[in-house]
Design brief:
heterodimer; A: 137 residues; mainly alpha; globular; B: 0% strand
């Protein structure tokens, strides 16, 4: 039941990405191309996701614990440092170049397109790179 | 290349993303961030940490197949990068960036902002501006139309 619930949540997330258009680089890049072929659709994806999550979290986090037990694992850091802003900037440049964000690219793998596999492999390479550099310090 | 403006469809898709985020918190107490799920899959604390993240990724990858069964066609994926090398460069930058920032569009942009986290609001504003500037430079600043 537990594993099935994770699979179904992943499926709902992936369907949202696919239906919303986040798995399509052309649509993502056009959202940011206000001076060109602007497509504001992704504002509706973000708006819909934020509205449901903001309201849902408020209801859910009033409970003492998640339904399957354990606790709520919520980030507690509040500091805004160079690592956060620098990382966000590098991510933004990459997102603009490729048109895939992590959550957009993973569902896109299911289309079987070779380009998506190339992107995801490179992205994992980037994640591993940061880990290796930090471990080597 | 133009894409069709799909406000209702995109709003519905966003609602599904939100539903998944709320369910993951309600059932398992976890943040629905693609970066955290990927990193945790690579370096899980224990075997169960790998299993649940693997199940979620499998569900995500199955989504286009279910979409195709329901609609009769695979979702459109139009790659804008001019070559695989450029696409891979973008991929490396995305991987490095989300690792340093500890999150991406889903973790910071949806879950973090929904919790009114100042870190997530700062990160999201930063990457949205960086993406817009990058797209502008590529499309309008390098001899493009």
């Amino acid at each position: 039941m537990r594993m099935l619930s994770y699979l179904l949540i992943g499926l709902i997330f992936g369907l949202g990405i696919v239906v919303g258009g986040m798995a399509n680089p052309a649509k993502v890049v056009n959202f940011f191309d206000i001076a060109g072929t602007w497509d504001p659709s992704l504002a509706f994806v973000m708006g819909g996701a934020l509205a449901v999550t903001a309201i849902g979290y408020r209801i859910v986090l009033r409970r003492n614990a998640p339904l399957f037990g354990g606790g709520f694992a919520l980030p507690t850091r509040r500091d805004i440092d160079e690592r956060l802003l620098g990382g966000a900037t590098v991510f933004g440049v990459g997102w603009g170049i490729a048109g895939f964000c992590p959550g957009g690219s993973i569902p896109a793998l299911g289309t079987g397109r070779v380009e998506v596999f190339v992107f995801v492999a490179a992205m994992i390479g980037g994640i591993v790179l940061v880990r290796m550099v930090e471990r080597g310090r | 290349m133009e894409t069709a403006f799909t406000p209702l469809q995109s709003l519905f898709g966003g609602g599904l993303i939100g539903l998944a985020a709320v369910l993951l918190m309600a059932l398992h107490g976890r943040i629905a961030g693609a970066t955290g799920i990927l990193s945790g899959l690579l370096w899980p604390g224990d075997a169960s940490g790998r299993a649940w993240r693997g199940a979620m990724v499998l569900g995500m990858v199955l989504a286009p197949v279910i979409f195709a069964l329901a609609s009769g066609a695979m979702p459109q994926v139009t790659v804008t990068a001019p070559s695989l090398g450029v696409l891979a460069t973008g991929g490396v930058l995305v991987g490095v960036g989300v690792s340093l920032a500890n999150g991406c569009t889903s973790g910071h942009g949806v879950c973090g902002i929904a919790r009114l986290s100042t870190r997530s609001i700062a990160a999201t504003m930063t990457f949205m501006v960086a993406t817009a500037v990058t797209v502008y430079v590529i499309r309008h600043g390098m001899g493009g139309a």
